[in-house]
Fold this protein.
Amino acid sequence: MCAQTPEIRLARPEDLATVVAIYNATIPGRMATAQLVPVTVEERRPWFAAHTPDRRPMWVAEGPDGVVAWVGLTDFHERAAYAATAQISIYVDERARGQGLGGRLLDHAIANAPAAGVTSLIGLVFADNAPSLGLFEGRGFERWGHMPKVADTDGDPRDLVYVGRHV
Ligand SMILES: CC(C)(COP(=O)(O)OP(=O)(O)OC[C@H]1O[C@@H](n2cnc3c(N)ncnc32)[C@H](O)[C@@H]1OP(=O)(O)O)[C@@H](O)C(=O)NCCC(=O)NCCS
């Protein structure tokens, strides 16, 4: 492995600010998230803390200049019968995209999800988010749901796709 290749590891508390920054950078593009205004580190603390390694891990990719990407599992639904199903979110810093990092992180999450008691992964992706759909579908995810015009980004109706796979 090249010395410059980002290393994938579990997220640590000190990663929160960078995780939020990578997420916030995608908001203006209206492609990755239905969040419309930037989130703050403070408001994201409970969400970050809910990423426990035993059940809902978050991993980050760290290169020579620090953390450049993250992938996290969260509850898909609060009801007990969905305990083994997790929503997966994956964000790569724009400068680090197109180099295989998103794929590595997704492979890592797929490989390690069973150890966290997760047997199904579901990604929520805008239907016109080609990079994300390409990433998931290239790794065996299928379109399990299509919800037309359920989001509105600045007056622009957006379709939501649920991509899922069992692991
Ligand atoms: C989607 C995202 C995570 C991909 O990360 P990445 O590091 O650029 O992806 P990779 O270089 O590992 O590419 C993996 C696959 O993604 C797809 N992909 C990546 N960029 C793409 C693009 N611009 N157009 C179409 N497909 C693309 C391809 O299928 C690619 O497969 P390949 O390896 O056979 O070429 C990244 O674009 C991103 O962070 N986007 C913003 C956040 C987001 O939309 N997250 C998804 C919602 S949870």
Notes: Residues 101-112 form the longest helix (12 residues). Helices lie at 16-24, 41-49, 101-112, 130-137. The chain has a mean pLDDT of 96.
